[in-house]
Amino acid sequence: MDVILQAMGLVFDPYVMMVIVLSGAFGLFMGAIPGLSATMATALLVPVTFFMPPVPALAAIVTATAMAIFAGDLPGALLRIPGTPASAAYTEEAYAMTRKGKAELVLGVGLSSAVIGGLFGAVVLSFTAPVLAEVALKFSSFEYFWLACLGLTSAAFISTDEPVKGLISLLVGLLIATVGIDPTAGHPRFTFGSVELMGGVNFIPAMIGMFAVAEVLRSVTATSPLARVENGHFGNVFRGVGGVLKQYKLNLLRGSVIGTLVGALPGAGSDIAAWISYAVSKKFSRTPEKFGTGHVEGIVDAGSSNNAGLGGTWVPALVFGIPGDSITAIVIGVLYVKGMNPGPTVFLEQPELIYAVFVTFFVANLLLLPLGYAAIKSSTQLLRVPRDVLMPIILMFCIVGTFAINNTVFGVGVMMVLGLVAYVMEENGFPIAPAILGLVLGGLLEDSFMTSMIKADGNLVAFFERPIAAVLGVVTVAIWLSPIVLRMRRKGASPAGDV
Amino acid sequence: MKFNDAVSGLFFILFALLLFYLTRDYPEMPGQSYGPDMFPRLIAVLMGVGGVLLVVKGLKEWSSTPLLELAEWTRSPRHVGNFLAVLAGLVAYILLSDTLGFFLTGAVVLGGLTIWLRGREHWKSSLLIAVVTVVAMHLFFGQFLRVPLPWGVFEDYAW
């Protein structure tokens, strides 16, 4: 109880509260502009949080992402363009409701279910993370090696329908992580004589390049003209919302549970949670035929699910240091910068910081109600911000933010190169999130692998000798083999003679 | 710039071979049969395998997927210009910021890019936006967060 009070003291501090409100407004703005996602909001926040103590730094990220995930609903409902990938699952539905003249209702329901889902995710995070951390304390380098493998493989396999491309993207990230002095023998790798590269590729310029610069490039080359929002005036956003939530209270609970669980899976975040919840909602609905025609039921499920997912993704991130999605991958990088090495020991050494994160989750989701309401009211203006002015400013922000990390333009070069790499990769169907996960986790993976190898004297069987390591190892290897097994079964199932 | 998967695959196979070449003379750790080259080589092997899988997939689609499919924007000089303008802005900042300083380089890069994207007829407002943004960024990053943004030619007037 002491720790919780201490954590509340850390969060309810005028400076931290100011950071929370400002990053909340920033998150709403970023989420509402199509193309600027919650991940990009986090990427742009990191250089600023670099200069903050841990609590406001983490509070800024928690708040901005919670707001951005909801704000993605705004252009979805008004323009039929999802503001963030997490809103994509129900954009059609939301737009259909707007066409029926129910824009207020769909945004009101979206906001309320986001708040409820977010609070649910926060409750689950606060209660499960400390319990899991106690289990995780017993882990050795073998378990960490398998956990890192499991996290990275799920990321590679879940983020795309072509696992090979996810895998290669992951390897690109891992490779970038090997640049610099190697951890076991101290030999410089891939530095090509550059002193700047000896320290390795800093993840902040890399991440800004891959998420923000690549997006700026995509935006300035977009050929289709953007839809313009019509002049609209919103009446009472909350009229009728209570009735909808009462009618679909089970959907609210189901969406929140699915969202938290999917979020806690390594590699899957809010966007996947929303897709799954929407599909589940349709499957178990009494009126599945109404889905897609402007029916609010699926929005209750998916709208609570994507915000609940945010809380879920922090569970593996804080407990094991294994990110659940690209946002928590960035968070893990930030934790390392702040000297809070994520993992179970943080819960023993600095429990007040961890509990402060939990408290922030509650504060941010409660604050979503008034700030989200204001965003709905001003959404027509928000969606009119001209892209041609915004993109150069974002680019300038990327430059200064990157420069601020090491105070050299070398980082700006890294950012540009990786931005181009990410742009070409995405054009060719290679997802970016696995590369960022690889970059952040590469050090841990190599470290735990080499430590385990030295401990086991090169004997690979040792990776399966401890019980938890064995289970994790078998699960990971099973996932690796699953595409081959599936392919063989598909061949076996083909009709006789068709071989 | 969408390549046939076989082309991407071939690229990663060659890249994997390059990794082996680059790690050829990394030292071994005393008493162990593996060293700093082990992890990069493991990555290279997996990357090579991934490359082979992509080549197989690409060859299957060879007749339906062209070798290289350029995106729609590459046929519009305007959009190619936009793409290059962003890169030019970044390169200009990298090369000039140390000598010219943040104010001047920032205003030129930001102003130039905004004028280019919005069209020359809005140059006054674009320039105004650029100057205001650069000053605001300097106040926030340079003064508030104490990032040593270069002063360049304004060194003598630094506050």
Termini gap of chain A: 66 Å
Report mean pLDDT of chain B, rounded to a whole number. 88
Q: What integer value in Å does the Rg of chain A equal?
A: 23 Å
Shape of chain B: flat
User: What string, H for helix and E for strand, traces the elements of chain B in order?
Assistant: EHHEHHH
Using the alpha-carbon principal axes, give the shape of chain A: globular
By DSSP (H or I, 4+ residues per run), the number of helices of chain A equals 23
Strand tally of chain B is: 2
The largest sheet of chain A is: 2 strands, antiparallel
Descriptive overview:
- The complex is a heterodimer of chains A (499) and B (159).
- Chain A contains 23 helices and two strands.
- Chain A has a two-stranded antiparallel sheet with strand order 1-2.
- Chain A is mainly alpha-helical and 499 residues long.
- Chain A is globular and about 70 Å long.
- In chain A, β1 and β2 form a beta hairpin.
- The C terminus of chain A is likely disordered.
- Chain B has 159 residues and is mostly helical.
- Chain B folds into two domains: 68 residues; 85 residues, no CATH class.
- In chain B, 65% of the residues lie in helices and 3% in strands.
- Chain B contains five helices and two strands; from the N terminus they run βααβααα.
- In chain B, strands 1-2 form a two-stranded antiparallel sheet.
- In chain B, α1 packs antiparallel against α2, α3 packs antiparallel against α4 and α4 runs antiparallel to α5.
